[in-house]
Each structure stands twice: as structure tokens, then as C-alpha cells.
Specification:
The protein is an alpha/beta fold. The protein has 14 helices and 11 strands. Helix 4 runs antiparallel to helix 12, helix 5 packs parallel to helix 12 and helix 6 crosses helix 8.
Length: 457
Amino acid sequence: MPKRSDILSDDHAQTDALLREVCAQTSQWLANLPARPVAGGAPPAAPIDHDGGARAALDEFLSRFSSGLAASAGPRYFGFVTGGVTPAALVGDWLASVIDQNATGSADSSAGALELETIALFRDMLGLPEAFNGAFVSGATMANFVGLATGRQWLGRQAGVDVAEAGLAALGPVRVLSAGAHSSTVKSLAMLGLGRQSLQRVASLPNREAVDVDALAEALAAAPGPCMVVANAGTVNTCDFDDLAAIAALKARFDFWLHVDAAFAGIAAASARYRPRLAGWEAADSITVDCHKWLNVPYDSAVALTRHLPLQAEVFRNQAAYLRGEVEPGNFLQLTPENSRRLRALPAWFALRAYGQAGYAGIVERNCDQARWLGERIAAEPRLRLLAPVMLNGFCFAPTQGDAGALLARINATGEVFMTPTVLFGQGAIRGAISHWATTQADMERVWAAIRSVLPG
């Protein structure tokens, strides 16, 4: 058997051929996406006994795992809020792997300048002021974590405490107010040591997921003193929006850190039709926007934005003699939880430069039109109930009779579409979101035909 060093040397000599073969396989994968079952999950075959280098590993991957992977990069994967990958973003992602930069903003690379430019392009497309800066992180969960961690530091400053130095015990109890904080926010509170119980649920509007601003004002007045408010710009079930302008106006009366979770719906600001839904988010202290959702770049990618960069650096400061210690935009080592990270801004830079605001406005508006089209058909079908108006790119429905989970299993088993279960207003339901640049009307008709095909006669 060849030595491992010989196998590695052989692979290196064959790198060009290996990459060409992988390119051919990925081209075939992309070409077959519309035809393959949307949901995967087939168990892998038994492991193959080999030690034969990259080509043998590729063969094993194709034979054992490939058939069980979901077509989540395809146009009819409506589970969660999953975007596809635009051609430009794919080019950027491949280059990011080849270049293999540790994109912390060190002085030996232009990677930091590229990420700053990407954030500026992103911010400008969404109509946010230059006061916002930030960094790329792995996803909405980590962006919420960064925003809330910075808010925690702000709370400490109001109390004359440096939480990053003295620890959480010096801060004391914290209140976090929200009508419907996403589970990633709750997870972040646990990771930050604030605890899940620090979240106080505020009443929402009747038959809405949006916060009742009067109830929020009452909650703020009930316990004077600084706190955090988490506002939603696009809820997962119904794509509902809190009244961000009205919440921001409360800052004139109450002292709170405003974090806006705009994980997927922040991208809607690229469209003049939908930007008014986000009016007031420019007054936020921190904002989460995901990129591997509606921006249609590969996992993992999100942007944590703030207008309080020095506070963020107090939390994530990393001091060592061999590291840049400056607190400034672009020195991402001092601004994020990671000390090492790939150049995940590059796919977003390619996408933003390739398609711009007009391109993303087109994606947003097309997907919203598609969701509304499907919602109209669901509402007109006597065997189904649309549980909320279609506000953006998502929809939520249930059978008029029977169990929503059983119906969902039958729908997903067709292989034509994948959606996810939820609970809305106490009722089991089915939800989906359309976030793919390549979803067509023909795809929508296939989805509707699949849904109707499994409804009881």
C-alpha cells in the first residue's frame, strides 16, 4: 500500500484533474436539481474500506451520501427560509475556498478591505445609514448573539459596570422584551448568561405576530431602568413586521437597546415596494440580516450590524502581542466571536456586484408574488385554510379537517416540495417560504398540484 505522503503527493499532482471532475459532478448536480426529490434523508450505505486518496474519497461520497442529500439548493425547497445560490455567489464561494484567507482583517491581506466594501454595498442596498458597520458571521443565530452581547455591554455601561471585564454577576438581572423573539434569540440569551428567563413576552396584536406597541410601552414603564427590546422584521410563520418606527419612537421616553432581527426580511428593503415595511430600523442599535437566506449566497453567511462598534469591540476584544489591537472597522478579530474565519464576504461581494439592488428587488418581488399566488389557491380550496394573510414570501395553512402533520408528511413524500411544521395561534400548521432566485411559475404549479394530489377526496 502506498505511503500516506505518496498519496498526498499524487493528489497534489492530480489537483487540476480532480477539480475538473468535481466541477463535472457539481454541474450534473445543479442540472438535476429540478428533477430530484426535494427532500433527501436516505441512510448512507456501509462505509467503504479504502485509503486511496481524494479520488477514492470522491467516489465514496457519491456512492454513499449523494443520493440522500436534500435538494435544498433547488427552487421548490420551501422549508425554513432557505435561499438558493446565485451563479455569481457560487463563483465567489469557490474562490473563497481556493484563496483560503483567514479573514480577520490583518495587515497582510486585502480581505478586510473587501469585507468592508461588501458591508457598505449591503448597507446601501438596504437603505441603512453609514452609521452602521459590522462584520460577517456564520448565520442569524450568531448575528443575534453579537447584537445582544453588545447590548449587554451597553446595559453594563448604563449601570457603571464593564460586563466584559467584571463578568455578568456585576450586572444583575436583565429584562429582554419581545412579542415573538426567534428561537435563536432565546438560544443567544442562554449562551450570553442572561438566561432564557430574562425574555419577557409582550402581547402581540390580535391575530398577528407583531408586537402591540402600547403593551410594549406598558412593559417598559412597569420596571424603569435600561433593558433590551428585540423587534422582529419578518416573523418565521407569517412574515409579520413589528412597527419599528413606533418602537423607535419609544426611545424618547424609555432607555433601551433596540435589536432588530431582520434575518431574512431585511433583504426586502432592496425593493421599493417592501422597504416601507422596515421604516424605523435605521434607529436600531443592532441589526441581524442573514445572507444565506434571501441574498442567495451559500451557507454560512450573515451580517451583524451596529452603530456602536466600540462597544462591540469591548466584548470581543482579543489582546496578544502578535495581533492587531486597533478597534476600527475592518479589524474583525476584535469584533466577532471567531479568531479565525474564512472569507465569507466574498460570495456576497460577487452577488452584490453582479446583480445589485435592481436584481435583488426582482428576486424579492417575484418570490412574494409567488407566495401570494399560492396563498390565493390555498384560500380558495375548501379542504384547506390559509391561517394568515400572505404578507411577504411565506405562507401558513392547515387542513380544514384532520391533522396538519399528517398532511405535511404526505405533501413532502411527493418529492415535489419540502415544507415544515409549525404552530400558529395555538393550531398545528404547515409553513413554507419562497426564497430562491430560480423559482418559476412552473415550479409553483408543480407545488400546488402536489398539495392537491394528497388532499382527501
